[in-house]
Write a structure and sequence with these properties.
The structure is a single chain. Helix content is 70%, strand content 0%. The chain is mainly α. It has one domain: Ferritin, core subunit, four-helix bundle (Ferritin, Up-down Bundle), CATH 1.20.1260. About 4% of the residues have low confidence. The structure holds MU-OXO-diiron.
């Protein structure tokens, strides 16, 4: 049985994961609008991963007999000054999500709630991977540069990160020159 404080924090985390999913979906839509098809596929796939993060929390709360609450959330941003600015925003967001997971871990450790503490270890490892992933992408964008063919090459490189492109083909535009 979970304490009211842990239930409340886990429900807040559900909200952050849903917000993350919406944010990536919106960013994927922006990339598609700019004909950055590789980025659009990658971000749309990442939106699905965020929903999987949310469902993992939902299942844990339900297994303990607690009520999972899907709250309202603000709309994600729809405009970005550049592709670099968008990935900067992603990196900052993932650092924020890590801070939220750390707060949960701290609470579970303080109570103590060893079951939740163990459950959260997956999120600790996942956030490490996510921060590493988006830092690597940012480094690669800065290395290649967005001048000339740079943006086209970046889009191709990020498109290679999609694990199952066939599943996302419907989200992709026909190949045209990137505009962002
Ligand atoms: Fe669910 Fe991108 O963290």
């Amino acid at each position: 049985m979970l304490s009211p404080g842990i239930i409340d924090k886990l429900n807040q985390q559900i909200n952050w994961e849903v917000y993350s999913s919406h944010m990536y979906l919106q960013m994927g839509a922006w990339c598609s609008y700019k004909s950055l098809d590789g980025c659009a596929m990658f971000l749309t796939q990442h939106a699905d991963e965020e929903m999987a993060h949310m469902r993992r929390l939902l299942k844990y709360l339900q297994e303990t007999g607690a009520l999972a609450i899907i709250g309202g959330m603000e709309a994600p941003p729809t405009e970005f000054s550049s592709l670099v600015a968008m990935f900067d925003k992603i990196y900052t967001h993932e650092q924020f999500v890590t801070s939220k997971i750390n707060e949960l871990v701290h609470l579970a450790n303080t109570e103590p709630d060893y079951s939740t503490l163990q459950f959260l270890q997956w999120y600790v490892a996942e956030q490490h991977q996510e921060e590493f992933l988006f830092k690597s992408i940012l480094d690669k964008i800065k290395l290649i540069g967005t001048e000339g063919q740079g943006l086209f090459l970046i889009d191709q490189e990020i498109g290679k990160l999609v694990s199952n492109p066939g599943a996302l083909e419907a989200t992709s535009n026909s190949a045209t020159a990137p505009q962002a």
